[in-house]
Design goal:
about 110 residues, 4-stranded antiparallel β-sheet, Alpha-Beta Plaits, alpha+beta, elongated
Amino acid sequence: MRIVLCTCEPGDGARLLTALLDDRLVAGGNIIPGLRSLYRWEGAIQDEPEELLVMETADDRVEAMTARLRALHPYEVPKIVTFDVKETLADYLQWVREMTRPAQGAAPEDR
């Protein structure tokens, strides 16, 4: 299982998370509003409001999830970071795996 972090513009988190849920690429997630991000971009320090998405996915869905999130995300270089989960409840891990299985009748590339 992986935890996925992604920042986005305020108000855009629900759109991104819903699309990933619809595609069964994440099992669930949280939207944390009210972030203030400072970072260097194009030679200057930027200071922007953002939201943080914290999501769960299965190990074998990370590549597809990352590709889809990158395609949906408006940023040129979005922050998409995944972390291995060292410990979790077995039934929670099973739920994540079940929720990220492609739906019956899905296209072969989604399996």
